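Notebook entry, structure prediction.
Reason for the run: the old model in the group folder had no record of what sequence produced it. Starting over properly, with the input documented here first.
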Amino acid sequence: MTNYIKIEGIGFANKGSTLMMTSVYQYLNNKKPNIVFMLGKPGFYDYKEYGGKEFLFYKEESIFRFGIHLTSVLPKKYLEYRGLLRDVDVNIILNLGGYALGDPWISSYSKEKNKELENYYKRYKKNGVKIIYLPQAYGPFELELSRDRISRISDYVDLFFVRDKASCSFLKGYVQENKIILSPDFTSVQEGILLKSDYDIAKNSIVIIPNNKMITHTDTSVGNNYLIFLIRIIEKLSKLKYKIILLNHEDKEDRKLIEVIKNEVPESVCVMDNKSALEIKGIIGVAKIVISSRFHGVINALNQGIPAFATSWSHKYKMLYDEFEISDLLLNISEKSTNMEIKKILNLLTDDKSYKQLQEKIKSHNSVNKKQTERMFSTILEYLN
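New structure, fully documented this time:
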């Protein structure tokens, strides 16, 4: 029996989102080869825009001609031959949004859009489709539109996998507790790709990953000091002859930040851009340390036993670092604390014993997380069966 899975909530410009897609696609295909994956039109065209060739995605299509819904009368095999599928063919929807429900996204919500999402899920539930949100962050839900959005969809979603305890707490006022399952980020199941040319550049480097949200989604005391903070770190490390890479983990907005930083730091600082999600993971896997403002930049490092310092614009970073018991690696971005944070980074770089102990702690947590991820995928496979 063929299973038809619709993937939603992904954006292929964001390499963390692409990595989640890759992890789900490869894992489920290996476990259950008779799966057909499909994307709605926005996701499908986004995938094609960013050079999508890796996977076989069918496009969800509704063809109306002369008032007739042709996709409901055309033979299924004919549609599949054209790379098309009908919404009535879907067995399960997997949402890979990462973090899209909560107050930080209020600018993308409206009463009309919230109602539209509710009707979208209602239509699928009438066909018996299971709807599952894979591990992601949620909340808070203090603003009216974000409360309205989660309230409208909670009855239709079968399971909410949740990355952290704070997100669990935020959801509990709106979602039945038996639908909420704590489970870590699942991209540990996917190996990276390391090109020889990338290895030569990245081996034992300090990889720095900026994020535009550190400016747009934080208060001014953080946002105004963010670029200065990174520039000062790079300047200090460059003087000490460390190999530094500025790595673009997203697309246009982060690229702009990297261009600004690059203009202010020594020429020896290398920029790596236009890399695939798996190439980025490969690069991070051979670094000495990572300093990341992107969540999956941090995850890619920790999953491979690489110590990662992080800056934070959301509760999901603190929750992750609490889980790994490495909260001291969260960096405080303020003008007064910059020198102290630089010293913290240098202490780790120069103390081999502390570095190795930290690696062992990270690897220990990874083994626990991998078991939880296997349980999460087992739950999905049960639904497919």
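Summary: The longest strand covers residues 130-136.
The old model has been moved to the deprecated folder.
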